[in-house]
Amino acid sequence: MTTMITGAGLVGSQIARILVQQGEKPVLFDVAPNLTALADVVELERVTLFRGDLLNPFDLGRVIQEQGVTRIVHTAAYPNLGTGAQENPYGAIQVNIMGTANVLEAARLHGAERVVMISTAAVARGVAGGEDNGDRSKEEALPRPNSFYSATKQAGENLGFNYARSHGVDFRAVRFPNVAGPWIPGGGGRPSAMFRTLVERSVDGVEHSIPPGTMEWLYSKDAARGVVMTLQAEGVKSRVFNIGIGRPYTAEELIDVFKQVVPGARLSVDESVATSQTSSVFLDLTRARTELGFDAEYDIPAAVTDYVAWYRRIRARGS
Predict the structure, then answer these.
(1) DSSP 274
(2) Taking Cα atoms as reference points, which of 137, 7, 165 lies closest to residue 77?
(3) Do the Cβ atoms of 211 and 276 come closer than 8 Å?
(4) How confident is the model at residue 200 (pLDDT cuts 50, 70, 90)?
(5) CA-to-CA distance for 316 and 287, rounded, in angstroms?
(6) Hey, which of 3, 14, 169, 211 would disulfide with 224, CB 3.0 to 4.6 Å?
(7) Is residue 277 predicted with pLDDT exceeding 80?
(8) Strand partners of residue 170
């Protein structure tokens, strides 16, 4: 059994690390892998690295055939996630929708038995419409995504459902809230960068403030563990699983955690700035808990502690 991971980034690298620890040699498929960052997470000689483009289906097919790939974890997405998609919707549509279509079609044509796609909580919380109370005979019955990123991810989920229904591809998706975790030099979208800045400013003793708001977080190591559990679970009833910590954090709570982990951290909440992200919809983890047995190992204090220790190590060696 060989697993191919599209996207050797913040979460893809951690998935590879777990699979290597389990004795597998996964295939990492990335258009421009950051070898320095990747080597900080997983031993490069214990993975097979392939430079390829999601938008070239022949690249995908060749790897699946040559490496005997039986399962695919699809983490690759347009850079900078939500922000990147808003700034360049056409690029995000190409990578997030056509790239996903290419992965699913390659799995169908070459017999990969299972595909797990990384989706987003924005599919659930960033919606408009639905004013017609679910009456599908009316125009506004169905909610629609209100951002390009969530629209592309919902499209990917829908494509996967239909490949499962019509072509027997065992498709599954995991929805993440904001993911943060160690990666050189960054990784993820704007919230990931915000979290990293908090780590750096805390350790470096630099004054820093963030806007108010309430956000859900997930540590990259837990994100990867949730994906691997979704990939390896047999006999599940569901095709989409929410993976998260299980509770939101206000900006004030987040700052308090950083100050506990790094005494003397000069962090604050700037109430004069517009709210960053606040939602009344937070992820229900029931399916992941009951069908996968998933619970996060890193709450925010544990995540900040681990992240800070990592940053201190790389700062000490000058990375």
Answers:
(1) P
(2) 7
(3) yes
(4) very high
(5) 42
(6) 14
(7) no
(8) 114
